[in-house]
Amino acid sequence: MHDMLIRGGTVVDGTGAAPFTADVAIADGRIVEVGRITAPARETIEADGAIVTPGFVDVHTHYDGQFLWDDTLEPSFSHGVTTAVGGNCGVGFAPVRVEHRAALIELMEGVEEIPGIVLNEGLDWRWQSFPDYLDRLAARHYTMDIASHITHAPLRVFVMGERALNHEAATADDITRMGQLVREAMDAGAIGVSGARVLEHLSSTGANVPGTFAADDELLGLAQAMGSSGHGTFQIIPLGANGDLMFDQTGAEGRRAEHDRIVRIAEAAGRPVTYSLLEFRADPDDWRMMIDESAKSLADGLRIHPQVGLRGVGAMTMLDGYHIFMLRPSYREIAHLPLAQRVVALREPGRRAAILNEQDDPSVVAADPKFAGFIAMLAGRIANIFPMTLPLDYEPGPERRLGALAAAAGVPMETYLYDHYAAGDGTNVCTSFMLNYAKGNLDATHDMLADPVTVGGLGDGGAHMKMICDSSYATFALTHWVRDRTRGPRLPLELVVRKLTSATADLYGLTDRGRIAVGQRADVNVIDHAALSLKMPRMAHDLPAGGMRLLQGSSGYLATMVAGTITRRNDAATGARPGRLIRSRPSAA
Asked: pTM of the entire structure?
């Protein structure tokens, strides 16, 4: 008697092999049979007409704090994710001394836009060392399995104190001590080490992140310590990776030098390295060089895998989030009102005229120039904003740009945008693609995903809470890239599923998952692919201290299982919490 039988589905097994029709039997949390199965089961899911995939392994999240107050882990939970890896981009909360807790919150608030008030309420700080932090996570149960890197910034601050915050060079003794703590973390089950060199990452005080300017001897010391454990993956954001947002930081030769540094890290570690790779306007073809260099390294025996975003990356704007009118005096007078009342006030002719003719409040600009600069950046990109409508189109053509829509309507762009926000119940959303959309389409993203050296990721679950909701990327990939794209070639279903499952699982040595095969952990999705769809992003007020975040639902997941337990059925949570902390070990590599 099996525990579960998934009958007659189209199995997309995660290896990249062509889909095939089969039954899948599950017992004791494992897949025990794939094929034509006649043995009975305690429960049967009729999957004829559906696809059966491994659960998705999301290796780039920022749930470091959320792991401690939330066992559901939205927005990832609604999109077939069964394993989530935190501790990315070099920022996190362990190890930590009491006197540096505030600084780590400021780093996470600035880099990942998780409000400090949320973190102050949500973190209980019942740890000091990284092993302590893992023990804290291990005491909790989740809708999915979780894992975490040890991150460079808190490690550096723990060892060097104020010298780290002042970006002083690490001494040989500092590097030795950091290496010892990395090894301690790896022995406790850290899944790897993460760092970042990107200049746009700033704390909420405007300071660069500790580790941004670390010399090679420090980075290689961390890599060697990780490698000495016999397991782990090194994740890094190289300099210039976000050059689209401000300026080209490095030029072609500088970026090649960054890849050379990644090669040295891989050599020192003897372990896989993954780095963020996106298309940015400052050099729209930079990604080709980086992929070529990674492919050469892979041929030489170094496991270097660019991690690519699966769609355009940018800023979502709405009345309950960020928008270009929020610093204008007449808007600030009503900003405190509940959304329903605020929308009514926005439609008053006098207030509408005042807001459209005002400049930003100079006192606010002076008090918070960083935030005012962000709003000014949104205003400067107004012609390239896309109002979002259902069904959602994440590859809109030029006719969908706000500039074109306003011109067709015969009104100024700000007027068109204002009326879009104020329409209906006030929940209308716009998006502005800053990365992966340099040429007004997703052709570069298509080619990055199609390349065998890359893995899919960069969903940033738990981060940029009022601006981005890219952790829905798995649902997007299965719909847009496989089924719906009209502005260019699509991608095979089996390739997309591999990028979301075995490719990411193998990168992190999680060889017990990522495939539909006998002996594998029964992390499984059953999906009505023909009906699969993304819902409109919405703002929820459900964080600690009443903080807000964007969520994006989906429709079409008939079942999601973690270790054979159904966590979602017909797009609704079952309440099950089978997920646990994964402690990475050498035997898993």
From this structure: 0.95
